[in-house]
Amino acid sequence: MASTIYDALIIGAGPAGLSTALGLSRVHRTKVVFTKPLGAGFRNEGVEEMHNVLSRDCTHPAEFRQISRDEITKYGTTEFIDAEITSVKRIETNNSDQFSFPSYFEALDRDGRKWHGRKIVLATGSVEVLPTDIPGYKENWPQNIFQCLFCDGHERSHLPSGILGFSPMHAHAAQMARLLVTESSGPPTILSNGPIPDTESMLKALETVKALGCKVETGKIDRLVPAESPEVGVTVHFGDGNSMHLGFLTDKPPTVLANKNIIDQLELEVESHPLMGEHIKDLDLGGKSKAPGVFVVGDAATPMKAVANAISSGANAAAILTQELAAENLQELLTSRPTSSR
Known about the structure:
Elements: E1 6-11, H1 15-26, E2 31-34, H2 61-73, E3 78-81, E4 85-92, E5 103-109, E6 114-122, E7 126-128, H3 137-140, E8 145-146, E9 161-164, H4 168-178, E10 189-191, H5 200-211, E11 215-217, E12 221-226, E13 234-238, E14 243-246, E15 248-250, E16 255-257, H6 260-265, E17 270-273, E18 277-280, E19 294-296, H7 307-336
Parallel strand pairs: 1-2, 1-6, 2-3, 6-19, 8-15, 9-10, 9-15, 10-11
Antiparallel strand pairs: 4-5, 5-6, 7-16, 12-13, 13-14, 17-18
Helix pairs in contact: 1-2, 1-7, 4-5
């Protein structure tokens, strides 16, 4: 067994994991940040800019992560390890003479290396499940297909836009897209990718989007072709031979949690929001889970998946985690203190 037991093992080096590490650094807690979660990259990979982050609006995500790592490194209490963690298990100490805390965690990477920490933080995030029935979808994601108009859309609001698919939930997307309408763009076009079912809910949604001024195109989509630089946007080709060029499309594919194997090993429960996707359920303040010593931060912890929220959740987790460590250390002092004689 390795001789070092860190205060925390942080799996994931996106905004949530880095924010947790920074908070713990401020109170001199030791930790390892694993920068390569198994089977998943960064959710905003391929995005040129991140938005809605004070002082870092329009910053490239990779630049943001590097700035954050530089800030954390200067404290001297963090190791960044480029490793894929394949398994995590909790080990009871049974109040042995060797350990004063009740348990610790052992993380194993793909190469068989082991790390040990008193607490574990899952900052493993989530990933989109892209549709496979529309040729060219993957080639346009995320540069020309935006899943969140709070995050993207403003820079191309002078261009015409489209909303992929149609359902009652797409009526809400139309309301958001309508906020970005400019004189040159005009209202967004609904691309239903086929006839709209004649049901009460669909007709009500159709009435809503038409009230918003949206055009409706029911043609079957044949393929999506990204524009070549320096042009931007996507050309939508239909099965009947017609096409239209749009500045961007809006679509929200389902999200699932990354690193499901570790989530299962720690016996954490998952719930799914119909629009926002999967997240860990029953988390307390600071992302504290029902599993002792396990914290969840970032996209895995909430249906509201955004960079600013991830940063906040990491800071909160660092505070609660630190309180747990301090309480355990205090208990050790009280237990080891000699009984005073009368």
